[in-house]
Design brief:
The complex is a heterodimer. Chain A has no helices and 11 strands. Chain A is mainly β. In chain B, the strands form 2 sheets. In chain B, strands 2, 4, 5, 9, 10 and 11 form a 6-stranded mixed beta sheet that branches. Chain B has a 5-stranded antiparallel beta sheet with strand order 1-3-8-7-6, with no helix packed on it. Classes of the chains: A mainly beta, B mainly beta. The interface between A and B is medium-sized, with 25 and 25 residues.
């Protein structure tokens, strides 16, 4: 079975550039989550969607971050403009619904120079 | 957001030893999850717990949902080198789909 698919796996870019991270959830899952992981702060929830609708975006650090889910099989997390402190591993996870475990992708390792 | 306290932060053990780690919360949770993360990969679900007092096994791993609903425990018996990684707990309360994650326990197994 295909798991959560994220792309790219690695991205290195200069500060000020726009960064777009992509996620394809597991087919049939109706919840999608974006996380950021750093050594200092651990795993932080940025935003999550239920049935393609954003439910809680209180974890999004600032206006430079935006996320969309145009359909049930695709989501993007965009950072514009990017800054060095955005460097982290970004994970996407999906779940079958209320109270069901989340399944994670392998993440995008982002480095902003 | 919610913070889960996970301990110990790191462990160094000999191959064959048993391992215990735990996770505590200031709030009551209805669901506890345990994940393992290998370097360069995403967390992988190990065990899910849905009822207070529940004890669930997955091979050499056993996890328990604490009676108070504010804690959970993970035990690994007869550790092997491939158990190396970071173990995360996650808990969910009454509302919403959001799980709160612990800070992780880094496990090193010495052959």
């Amino acid at each position: 079975d295909a798991g959560v698919i994220q792309s790219p796996r690695h991205e290195v870019t200069e500060m000020g550039q726009e960064v777009t991270l992509r996620c394809k959830p597991i087919s049939g899952h109706n919840s999608l989550f974006w996380y950021r992981q750093t050594m200092m702060r651990g795993l932080e929830l940025l935003i999550y969607f239920n049935n393609n609708v954003p439910i809680d975006d209180s974890g999004m650090p600032e206006d430079r971050f935006s996320a969309k889910m145009p359909n049930a099989s695709f989501s993007t997390l965009k950072i514009q403009p990017s800054e060095p402190r955005d460097s982290a591993v970004y994970f996407c996870a999906s779940g079958e619904g209320d109270n069901q475990p989340q399944h994670f992708g392998d993440g995008t390792r982002l480095s902003i120079l | 957001g919610q913070q889960l306290n996970q301990s110990p932060q790191s462990m160094f053990i000999q191959e064959g030893e048993d391992v215990s780690m735990n996770c505590t919360s200031s709030s009551i949770f209805n669901t506890w999850l345990w994940y393992k993360q290998d370097p360069g990969e995403g967390p992988v679900l190990l065990i899910a717990l849905y009822k207070a007092g529940e004890l669930t096994s997955n091979g050499r791993l056993t996890a328990q949902f604490g009676i108070t609903r504010k804690d959970s425990f993970l035990n690994i018996s007869a550790s092997i080198p491939s158990d190396v990684g970071i173990y995360f707990c996650a808990g969910r309360g009454n509302t919403g789909n959001q799980f709160y994650f612990g800070t992780g326990t880094s496990l090193t197994v010495i052959p």
